[in-house]
Amino acid sequence: MVLVGALGGCGSDDDTGTGVPQSGNPPTTVAPKTSTTTAGSQEAALDARPYAVGERTVTLVDTDRGTQAVPAQGIAEKPDRTIELIVLYPAEGEATGEAAGDGAPVADAPVAGGRFPLLVFAHGWTGSGASLVPTAQRWAGAGYVVALPTFPLSRDGIGFSDDLPQQPGDVRFVLDAVLAYGEDADDPLAGHVDAEHVAVGGHSLGAATALAFVNSCCEDPRVDAVIAVSGGPLCCEGGEYPGTMPVPLLLVHGGRDTVVAPASSDFMFDRFGGEVSYLFLPEGDHVSFFQGDDHELFDRTVVAFLDARLGLDPDAIDGLAGEVDATGRGNFRTPD
Questions:
Q1: Is the pLDDT assigned to residue 24 strictly greater than 60?
Q2: What distance in Å separates the CA atoms of residue 262 and residue 256, rounded to the nearest whole number?
Q3: Is the full-model pTM beyond 0.70?
Q4: Alpha-carbon distance values, 268 to 37, 211, 231, 245, 271 (Å)
Q5: Are 133 and 84 in contact (CB under 8 A)?
Q6: Class of domain 2-9+39-333
């Protein structure tokens, strides 16, 4: 792995609008991830919300895997893969920026005290890590290290979705990098990344990328939960989806999504056993979870899911269904 400038599967190209605008086995019960922290430290972490948010940008180069050519766009084959990465994290100081409702994260701000679970969240077709910062900033303010990669070819400006089979490997590479920061005594994130509590998520094509981690092709023992927003199980050749999810899964979809039909999430919720939860907003479209009136409900659901399934607050989703119902905007379902 090469880091440059530190501190500074299957799709088709006829998908449209999948980037955020500039923006079987018998069923078994999957137990929530238990926390390695004490009850006191959990309470302290919850009381500290919202945290101030810091931002770090790096460029990762994976020299062990190549990038295919895209002749139609004059892009030559490369022997490596370059992944631009934004890392948001809880920072010292009073919460400002999006965690508190306005502003932007502070570049290279000192990291807040404590160890924080890690979420790697993947953008959709023609998206970017940067387009997800306003939403991810709120998750970081809730006490998570959030890594936002920009993929080599499905990104904004290229939009080559046939690179999807390579993207789970990109996410794994990002996991390697950020967890290594947490173990490097000379790195600002040293001791602050909780390697025992890790989640992967994504939107649209990024959701297909994240769902690969519950496919036999790409399971990773470090991943404790998966979030799939406005996406479906497209990946991957040589693997299969089990009848029961190996880790907790959160599905999110809008009823007015004309890019990826909500039937894809309906199917997964009905078919898969295990700890599968589902936020459905009938009036939501493909990207409305990241903007407008839907984003607060989406953020609340994501944080509650992560808190419950990664062990920060095991009771976090208790009552969430009632909260969602009370908004009149949709429903939140968990297994019976």
A1: no
A2: 8
A3: yes
A4: 33, 11, 11, 10, 5
A5: no
A6: alpha beta
